[in-house]
Amino acid sequence: MDVDEEDFVFYGTPIEREEDITTRKKKAVAEASGQLRSVVPWKQEVRDEEGRRRFHGAFTGGYSAGYYNTVGSKEGWTPQSFTSSRKNRAEIKRQDIMNFLDDDEKEELDNRSLATSTQFDTFGFTAAELARQQVEKETKKRPSAIPGPIPDELIVPATESIGVKLLLKMGWRRGRSIKDSSATLLKDKEARKNFVASSADNKSAKSADSELVENDTEACSYSPTDDGGIPKSTPVYVINPKQDLHGLGYDPYKHAPEFRERKRARMLGTKETNPQKPFSVGDGLFGFKSGRIAPGFGIGALEDLDVEDEDVYAPGYDFEEFQIKEIEEPSRPMIENVKLLGNKESGFLSGFKPASNSDYQLERYGPPDIPKNFVPRHKFTAPLDVGNKLSGAMPPEVPPPEDNSLRLLIDGMATLVARCGLLFEDLSRQKNQSNPLFSFLFGGNGQDYYERKLWEERQKHKDRNTLQLNEQKFQSAEKMTAENRGRILGEKPLERSLKNSATSSSSADNVNLQFHLSDTFTTPISFSGPAEVVKPFQEDPAKQERFEQFLKEKYHGGLRSKDVGGSSKMSEASRARERLEFEAAAEAMEKGKRVSENKDPSRLFGDVLPTTGLQFTSGVLEQVKIGKEELVKESKLPKREEYPWRPSSLLCKRFDLTDPYMGKPPPPPRPRSKMDALILMPDPVAAAVVEHQMMPVGNQSSSLQAGTGDKAEGFVTEDIKVDAENIERPVDLYKAIFSDDSDAEDENNNPAVPGEDPEEKMEVANKTLNRLIAGDFLESLGKELGLEVPPDVPYPENRDRGMPSGKDSKIAYKGGKDMEQRVNDRSSDSAGGGNLMVSEMRQTGHEGMIHWIGRSNPETSNPANGRKMAEAGILERSGDENIEPAATKEEKKTKSATHQHNNSGSDSSEDERSRKRSHHRRRRSYSDSESSDSSDDSRRRSRSEGKRKRSSREKSSSRRHSKHHKHRHRTSSKRNSHYGSDKEHRKAKDRSRYKD
Amino acid sequence: MSNAGVETLPKKEVNILKGHEGAVLAARFNSNGEYCLSCGKDRTIRLWNPHRGIPIKTYKSHGREVRDVHVSPDNSKIISCGGDRQIFYWDVASGRVIRKFRGHDSEVNAVKFNEYASAVVSAGYDRSVRAWDCRSQSTEPIQIISTFSDSVMSVCLTKTEIIAGSVDGTVRTFDIRMGREISDNLWQPVNCISLSNDGNCILASCLDSGIRLLDRSSGEVLQEYRGHICKAFKMDCCLTNTDAHVTGGSEDGLIYFWDLVDASVVSSFRAHSSVVTSVSYHPKDSCMITSSVDGTIKVWKT
């Protein structure tokens, strides 16, 4: 056997015998292959791949790990010695996963990462990298002569790649080309040439290096040091030779590679592609619709292209065409120019041929062919501007026709036509075809005269126009020099009060100014012209006179009496008819001037106005309109308005100013529309009315003091107030919505009213109806404006007997002198309450309320008024506040029976009213009606109490009650103000946080 | 007098500041006229030395075009606004954004510092003028003024007032000290407003190609300057440093000089190839910068 073995040659590695494998391992392998399935599951053992039993069962030690279930090893477990990280931070060793891995696991991990074998490192990159790493390591270990990292070029891989090895084995030597030498040489030169000429746009980063290398190769092709050895004889870039005029290494498309494609397409000489339609780069990227986007930048990928991204500044031409133009582009036409020059002068340059078709062509267009029958004159149906264009020569002077009326007619017609254009003539010609008087328009009698007159009028008109223009110029110049120059120079204007009065007055000024302006710019002759001339009512001289008067008034405005030209003798109906007739005639005359002008407002107004007494017709509008042509700019004078504006306190602080509104309630909000202003703005009329209203109260008190004790006295004051109410609409509207509750209720409680006649009932019913309508309107208006419509204005409601102050006075008559005192008391009290309430309102900053309060503030002198207002204020602000104590609610329930009784006891008209009231309430929101009901009831109760028993004791109790009311209000207002201050306080805190 | 003034008008082009890609929307001198800031459609703000013609710094952070820029009196902060509806508060030296004020509902047209650079007032397309606080950390507006009925194009600040011009035709003065608002309706969309150096007049450029000189105390139009084209773009106008002339750009690239008093065109010349968006006059010298849609800023001197 031994001898045999000596003779044998063994190849390969012998396969291990089965016996050599440990039984343990065999078992494991068998187990893995699933051969031991025969063993019942509970007898199977879990073993690792080494065959060791690791799991011992849940009750016999669990999972064994480490060295016999210890953390350590056979040698024992030594804990890592503690090293303070304080002193030697640098030495702290990072814990690595490798520290915790077993050997086999490490091996596994290593296997997972791919590494190149140096064996197949064809180009030597990996070797170079390794060498570099090695060098780095070495330099770290020992100080190098050259500080810093060693340049890459100095490091050469120590190993050779397999390719080099192979080549060397095949007989290749370094520094030689692989190809046969002669061919290589030639090709090399070519390549080099190409390379020099090649365009830079295809140059890769590598090419810079290779360029150097190649140069070296060329210079010393047999140099043994040439390690880059294998000449890259056919560089890729030769495919794209350099053809542009850019500098070497300059890539115009470096940052815009999308243009390279485009250029290539062009370089291919695709003439057939439409040059007018360059494919847009933007199209692909963003898909702009307009294509007119600001040059140079796009928008973010996530943003949409909006309208504002478009280049609003872009002129008419296309930017893209612009961008495509390259630097070398203009050179071509230049060369061609030279060529053309050469062509012209001395044939062709040597080496050049004349181009068969040059793309440099200037397209020339000949003048258009004029048709033979073309007449170089334009014909207008109607002249645009008659005044400036005087047609033809002046017609010969013609004696006027004998007929005086005809002469007048012709004169007037000519004036009109001159003023309004030929259109008027056409119109009147159409209208008066059958009228023999107008025959001069159709070439009949007096045509010559008409033409002459027309010409004269036109001349005149033109003169006037120029005159007006001059005047205008002069005026503007004068305007400048007089006072404004001084202002420009910084002088103080002389005692000139600012126009900071109410807006209405300023607007009135404005109108006035316009009026003056129009007055200066429109000559009165032009207006009286049509009135004098056209006489549509010639057959009736009186009528004609009236018509003229009518026209005059129409155009000039001002006050006029209706008794004109004996029209007073006529009946109303015939007068109206005549007026209509006049209107129609005037309109017909106007039509010539302003064809497409709708009916002017003043006339409409005139129609509506009743024709009794003096009438005011506003001529202003008319005149302004006529003067429009001249006043297009001048009529738009700057308009100044002034409003209160509250800067925030922080803003004041930042501007280093004291807050003008410091501690003051906020200013009333600006009315947001004209309608709003109409209702809410304090206008002079209203102010006057307020003053007016204050007087009656004074009257009343004086009458009380005088102790006349007459009912009539009270009614006198009431009458005055009725008048005031008639004038003052706006407040009435508010009252209309909200006050019917209270006054109806007052009526309920005052059955003993004098003078309950049907006429009054009618009036009351009408009024309520009006109020309902007005209330609806106001509510919707409020909604539209987003404004909270304030609740009931407790306007002195004296017309009806329910006015509390009236009641008071009545009581006073009965109660005598001491009651007088009481009234005064109450008035002062309630006034105070009202004021408190006002301030409370302001503090809560309730919008829309403020106007109202501001309006009715003067009225708080009225005692009951003040109280009511306070109540209203509470009603308004509390759905939740529950000002009504629970006790009063209880009372209300108990008293409701009496209240019912009271209601039933009232008469039919009151029933009707209450029905209306309930209807009105239904329109309100539920919670609102709830609260108002409750308070109403309480009030009603107190009243009824006071009314039922008129003993002084009861009165005093009612007074107490009212005082209780007042007290309540005051506390509530105090509370509110407290809230307000609290809020202020908090705000201030917030602000202080912002402060630096 | 006017003749003497005409000679001193800056009509000679000294420098061209190039760098903006696309339209330059505004160019402004700083408070002492040494430097200027420009902003444009390329979303950048650039700081220049116009006298030497060199760019100094570029501020990039805006997401859309920058419409207006203003530098604080101490030259340490910049405020800018633009199409991204934000107002950026920059630190000049570091070029970083200190704060962004958000709140405008659409593009912000103009922005200005107040005297102490403690607050900023901006005017936006959302018909509002907003005041912002620079002192605190708050980015909420101090106050919102929304009485305008159309886009607010321009805003000017005095020591006590905020003046803003709007497309609704009004120039509104908000007097902080008096707590009132004065609205002067010019009936023409107001494009740009500019205060005279004495503070007594407002120059309001309207979109009917007319610049109007408004007396602030009375609200009267003292003079109207015409000849240029201003119909569609936001363009600036201003008075010269001596208040003797009014200057403004035109949509055809011309610069106009008017005599303040008699409103005659004293001089006009072609400055740019496209719309002149902004003119800014040196506070002391006879020097002017103009910016244009053609992407250049030009410095003009006598």
Name a few traits of the molecule:
heterodimer, A: 996 residues, mainly alpha, 6 domains, two-stranded antiparallel sheet, 37 helices, 55% helix, disordered C terminus, B: 302 residues, mainly beta, Methylamine Dehydrogenase, Chain H, 4-stranded antiparallel beta sheet, 1 helix, repeat (chain B), cytoplasm (chain B), OLC1v1008876C1 (chain B)
Describe the structure in your own words.
Chain B: Belongs to the WD repeat MORG1 family. Chain B: It is found in: Cytoplasm. Chain B: WD repeats lie at residues 17-58, 59-100, 101-142, 269-302. Chain B: This is OLC1v1008876C1. Chain B: Keywords: Cytoplasm, Repeat, WD repeat. The complex is a heterodimer of chains A (996) and B (302). Chain A has 996 residues and is an all-alpha fold. Chain A has 37 helices and 3 strands. Chain A has helices spanning 2-7, 23-32, 97-100, 103-112, 125-141, 162-169, 181-197, 205-219, 258-267, 281-285, 319-324, 331-346, 404-420, 422-431, 447-488, 503-521, 524-533, 541-556, 572-593, 601-608, 619-626, 628-631, 649-654, 674-680, 684-706, 711-727, 729-738, 740-749, 758-785, 804-815, 817-844, 849-856, 863-877, 886-905, 908-923, 926-948, 952-994, and strands at 558-560, 615-617, 639-644. A two-stranded antiparallel sheet of chain A has the order 1-2. Chain B has 302 residues and is mainly β. Chain B has one domain: 7 Propeller (Methylamine Dehydrogenase, Chain H), CATH 2.130.10. Chain B is built from 1 helix and 28 strands. Chain B has one helix at residues 2-7; strands at residues 12-18, 24-29, 36-40, 44-49, 54-60, 66-71, 77-82, 86-91, 97-102, 108-113, 119-124, 129-133, 141-145, 152-157, 161-166, 170-175, 180-185, 190-195, 201-206, 210-215, 221-226, 237-239, 245-249, 254-259, 265-270, 276-281, 287-292, 296-301. In chain B, strand 8 and strand 9 form a beta hairpin. Chain B is globular, with a radius of gyration of 18 Å. Classes of the chains: A mainly alpha (996), B mainly beta (302). Chains A and B meet through helix 15, strand 3 and helix 23 of A and strand 13, strand 17, strand 20 and strand 21 of B. Strand 3 (639-644) of chain A pairs antiparallel with strand 17 of chain B.
